[in-house]
């Protein structure tokens, strides 16, 4: 089992044990969210596709919404295209994006204040967290 797949299966097991109402997966290309969906959790998976900027010194380009669209074909995945963040560090931008995702999830009725959720991300150095909304 690859480290990424081990992380995905652990997120589903954690969601089951914590009686979480939602799994939030922050991803760039969608692979992590698809691996979580492979384990068919009993709760919805919010696949937050985080855009990334690239530059060649003259032109700036931003990734497109293709990973969010592709997640529509997987069972249990609910796509959300995150806004880019200009924070100084990955930890700061992850925090901002996660707050936006949780706000969107509560507006959609996927979770409510006081619910436990599992947040899984591979953006920056850390991976995976258990959060309470």
Automatic annotation (TrEMBL):
It comes from Tetracentron sinense (Spur-leaf). PANTHER family: PYRUVATE KINASE (PTHR11817). This is Pyruvate kinase C-terminal domain-containing protein. It comes from the Eukaryota. Pfam families: PK_C. GO terms for molecular function: magnesium ion binding; potassium ion binding; pyruvate kinase activity. InterPro entries: Pyr_Knase, Pyrv_Knase_C, Pyrv_Knase_C_sf. Homotetramer. Residues 5-124 form the Pyruvate kinase C-terminal domain.
């Amino acid at each position: 089992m690859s480290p990424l797949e081990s992380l995905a299966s652990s997120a589903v097991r954690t969601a089951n044990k914590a009686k979480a109402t939602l799994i939030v997966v922050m991803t760039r290309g969608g692979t992590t969210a698809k691996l979580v969906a492979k384990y068919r959790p009993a709760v919805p998976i919010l696949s937050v596709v985080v855009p990334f900027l690239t530059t060649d010194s003259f032109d700036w380009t931003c990734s497109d919404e293709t990973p969010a669209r592709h997640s529509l074909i997987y069972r249990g995945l609910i796509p959300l295209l995150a806004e880019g963040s200009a924070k100084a560090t990955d930890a700061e931008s992850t925090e901002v994006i996660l707050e936006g995702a949780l706000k969107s999830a509560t507006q959609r009725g996927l979770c409510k204040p006081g619910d436990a959720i599992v947040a899984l991300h591979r953006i920056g150095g850390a991976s995976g967290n258990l959060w309470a909304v």
